[in-house]
């Protein structure tokens, strides 16, 4: 949903007029800004900067989303959710919308990150999310894990038979969040969506999950060990020994490092 600058300007004007302030006094109140700047906002020529927009919302006792999208603020959030997660249970949609509004976010980037967080942690898996596995190189003990009934490749899996470790790395162009995969592995209810179709010889092994941290851009390797008590994978300080060099799978280390360098050279415009 595009931002209507003219409509935002009208809402800013309404807040200013309700406070009975001139453009000059309103500008000084929110950061010693000149009258011309406030005038440009109200005429819809440009939008306030993120920090300033937040100040205006606070002064007007409205949410940032209302200031940007008016009465359609809920629709904007729902469109973001549906674009990322498809149709959801209305109860979950309502919960996420409420949480996002209470967070009082300003920028679309902040909103996007929080939507991703809720999708990762709150949206339950479906049959479409269930993983299937295919051996693509028997000599290298390399498997391809897919979702959407085998139609969408999501990760590579290498079985280190000697050390009893499963090495996993996202497939190129994978649309499955690594953080969501970690949630699957760590919960008994959702683990079955990952492990149900794993070959028996690969079940209940230690896991090293190789990826790029989306916040910092650094290589991230998550060491996990299967717990029979919880019937899921867990991270503890005791798992750190898995990060010692002799346990790492060099081809996956090299691949994620290449991706890190590529992302650094060509940062996402998102």
From TrEMBL:
Q: What is an example of a Pfam family matching this protein?
A: HTH_3
State what protein this is by name.
Answer: Helix-turn-helix transcriptional regulator
Please give the InterPro entries that the UniProt record associates with this protein: Cro/C1-type_HTH (IPR001387), Lambda_DNA-bd_dom_sf (IPR010982)
Q: Which residues form the HTH cro/C1-type domain?
A: 12-67
TM region positions = none
Which source organism does the UniProt entry give? Answer: Enterococcus xiangfangensis
């Amino acid at each position: 949903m595009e931002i209507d600058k003219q409509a935002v300007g009208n809402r800013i004007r309404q807040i200013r007029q309700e406070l009975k302030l001139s453009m000059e006094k309103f500008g000084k109140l929110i950061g010693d800004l000149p009258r011309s700047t406030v005038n440009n906002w109200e005429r819809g020529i440009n939008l306030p900067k993120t920090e300033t927009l937040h100040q205006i919302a606070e002064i007007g006792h409205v949410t940032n989303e209302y200031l940007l999208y008016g009465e359609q603020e809920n629709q904007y959030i729902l469109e973001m959710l549906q674009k990322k997660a498809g149709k959801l249970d209305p109860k979950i949609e309502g919960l996420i919308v409420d949480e996002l509004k209470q967070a009082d976010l300003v920028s679309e980037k902040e909103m996007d990150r929080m939507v991703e967080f809720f999708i990762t942690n709150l949206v339950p898996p479906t049959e479409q999310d269930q993983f299937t596995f295919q051996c693509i190189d028997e000599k290298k003990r390399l498997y391809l894990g897919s979702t959407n009934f085998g139609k969408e490749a999501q990760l590579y899996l290498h079985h280190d038979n000697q050390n009893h470790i499963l090495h996993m790395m996202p497939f190129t162009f994978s649309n499955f969040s690594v953080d969501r995969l970690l949630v699957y592995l760590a919960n008994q209810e959702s683990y079955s969506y990952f492990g149900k179709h794993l070959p028996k010889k690969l079940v209940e092994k230690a896991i090293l999950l190789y990826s790029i941290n989306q916040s910092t851009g650094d290589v991230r390797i998550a060491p996990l060990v299967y717990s029979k008590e919880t019937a899921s994978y867990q991270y503890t300080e005791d798992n750190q020994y898995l990060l010692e060099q002799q346990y790492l799978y060099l081809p996956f280390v090299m691949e994620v490092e290449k991706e890190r360098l590529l992302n650094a050279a060509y940062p996402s415009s998102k």
